[in-house]
Amino acid sequence: MFNFFKKKPKDDGTKIAAAVDGQLMPITDVKDDVFSTKMLGDGYAIKPASDDVYAPVSGKISTLFPTKHAVGITTDQGLEVLVHLGLDTVELKGEPFEAAIQEGQTVNQGDKIITMNRALIADKGYDDSVIVVYTNMDLLNSVSAVAAKTVAHGDEIQTIEYK
Predict the structure, then answer these.
(1) Does residue 6 sit within a domain?
(2) pLDDT, tens digit (0-9, with 9 covering 90-100), for 111-140
(3) CB count, 10 Å around CB of 52?
(4) How far apart are CA 48 and CA 71, in angstroms?
(5) Considering the domain boundaries, does residue 2 fall inside one?
(6) Is-above-0.70 flag for pTM?
(7) Contact predicate 46/52, CB 8 Å
(8) Is residue 111 part of a domain?
(9) Is residue 5 part of a domain?
(10) Which end of the chain has fewer CB atoms within 10 angstroms, the N or the C?
(11) Residue 4 CB: number of other CB atoms within 10 A?
């Protein structure tokens, strides 16, 4: 009748998707101390096997860097998710990146956001790892660990729980 004694369903957390096809790795394995020490926040990284990068979460494009090497997505819950394309690729001044989105646009998890020219990044001597970081960790209770494995974009690879 009033369901006073009915248990609330357990919150299984928010599922985070793989942003790109490739080899998943813990963020602590990224060859850059800013990411590997979780200075910017927790998350994951993927050594990509394709050039197309997809939204790991649904939300609003809050930042598209002029060099297109990084995209910020803010979820409805206010979580800021940074999708960073490669290490030190800001120095390439946007050359290997083509944005499929623009600032202010709403995206769904799995929508294509960027195409990156991995061959050009490698030719210029840069690491093309795609790093996904939750930058305002104060909103989260937990972030599940990830284990190295091959993934396809859209695969559920991590779970976060909001406070």
Answers:
(1) no
(2) 999 999 999 999 999 999 999 999 999 999
(3) 16
(4) 17
(5) no
(6) yes
(7) no
(8) yes
(9) no
(10) N
(11) 5
